Each structure stands twice: as structure tokens, then as C-alpha cells.
Amino acid sequence: MRPVDLLRKLRREAAVEPTALERGKAVLMKAIRQETAVQQEAAPARRRTIVPQLPYENIHAALTFLERAFGFREIRTERLVNAGVLVHAMVEFGGAVVGIGEQGGHGAVSPQSGGVESQYISVYVDEVDAHYQRAVAAGARIANELRTQAQWGHRTYEALDPEGHRWRFHQLLREPRSEQRRRPGQN
């Protein structure tokens, strides 16, 4: 019986016998939980809206490094293999994903091939000091040492992966006040 129908029935019974409502409460709550579970199963999964894509010369090495040094996890069901060669994969961290693909797709090249960094990715972590130690132990090249940026309310460091992509890791220490966010020279 649907929860709304069960509630109507309980109201009718409670009008005659007040204790019926108390006895029926557990049955009603169970029906609500079951209906909620069915609705959640039927609801489509939330579609990702922004997924950065990074080109790599060696996708396997990139996946190994990102997992070991930065704590990413590969989403194995997202692998794309063409003629036995891994051409695209996805990694996740905290609810966000990053695509890892072969270079040349859409004109993108790895900083290792192009000789220049073209972007950086910011990742928020719970314990940046421990994350920093993990990255160092795994051989990440540290581009900017661990430091506290009081004006932004962050503790942060930057690291380069083996192909030169820049990763900026932050721990939010507190929410900065809007007047603290102004850059020098701003009124």
C-alpha cells in the first residue's frame, strides 16, 4: 500500500480508535522508506557538468602516479581502449572527476611535449600537510612549497606530475572575509 493511502486509512481508524495511529506509525514509516528507496533507484544519476581533460603521452604511468601520489582513484568503467591501446580514462577525487587522455586529441598536448604549462587544476583536500607528505614520498616535483595563505584562508602547495601538469592542493582553513579577498590596488 502506498504511504498516502496508508495514512488515509490510519486517519479513518484513529477517528474511531485513537491508539490506531500509534500502532500504525511503524508501518507507515516502513512504507515511506520503501517508496523513497524505489524513487531513488528510478532517479537518473546526476550527470557531470564540467570535466577537465588532461593530455598525457603515457596514460598508464599518469594513472599510476595520480593514484599513488595524489590519492585519485581510477573509474575503471570509464576506460576507452582502441585497438588494444588505452586512449582515455577517468579519475575521481572527492566527487569530482578528471579525464586523462592521449595527447593530440582536440589539439591538446602534454606539457612534456609542448614545453609549456597551459593550466593548473585546484583540488581541495581535508589534510593538506598529510597530502603533501604523500606526494613527496611518491616522487612528485614540488613547484611551490607548503604554505599558509591567510588572505585566502588556505593552506596550499603546488606539485607537478611526471609530464608537467601543475596541481594545486588546498586545505580550507576558514572562509575569508570579502574585504580580505581584494587584491592590492583594489578599492
Structural features, described:
With 187 residues, this protein is of the alpha+beta class. It folds into two domains: 3-42; 53-180, Roll (2,3-Dihydroxybiphenyl 1,2-Dioxygenase, domain 1). It is built from five helices and nine strands; from the N terminus they run ααβαββββαβαβββ. The protein has helices spanning 3-16, 19-42, 59-70, 111-114, 128-137; strands spanning 53-56, 73-74, 80-82, 85-93, 96-102, 120-124, 141-149, 154-160, 166-172. A hairpin with a 5-residue loop joins strand 8 (154-160) and strand 9. Helix 1 (3-16) runs antiparallel to helix 2 (19-42). The longest helix is centred in the first third of the chain and has 24 residues, at 19-42.
Q: In a nutshell, what does this entry contain?
A:
This protein has two domains: 3-42; 53-180, 2,3-Dihydroxybiphenyl 1,2-Dioxygenase, domain 1. The chain has five helices and nine strands.
List keywords for this structure.
four-stranded mixed beta sheet, 2 domains, 187 residues, 9 strands, 28% strand, alpha+beta
What is the second-level CATH architecture of the largest domain?
Roll
Task: Fill in the CATH topology of the largest domain.
Answer: 2,3-Dihydroxybiphenyl 1,2-Dioxygenase, domain 1
Rg over C-alpha atoms, rounded to the nearest angstrom? 26 Å
How would you state the average pLDDT, rounded? 84
CATH level-four homologous superfamily name of the largest domain: 2,3-Dihydroxybiphenyl 1,2-Dioxygenase, domain 1
Q: In DSSP terms, counting alpha (H) and pi (I) runs of 4 or more, how many helices?
A: 5
The main pleated sheet reads as: 5 strands, mixed
Total beta-strand segments: 9
Helix/strand order: HHEHEEEEHEHEEE
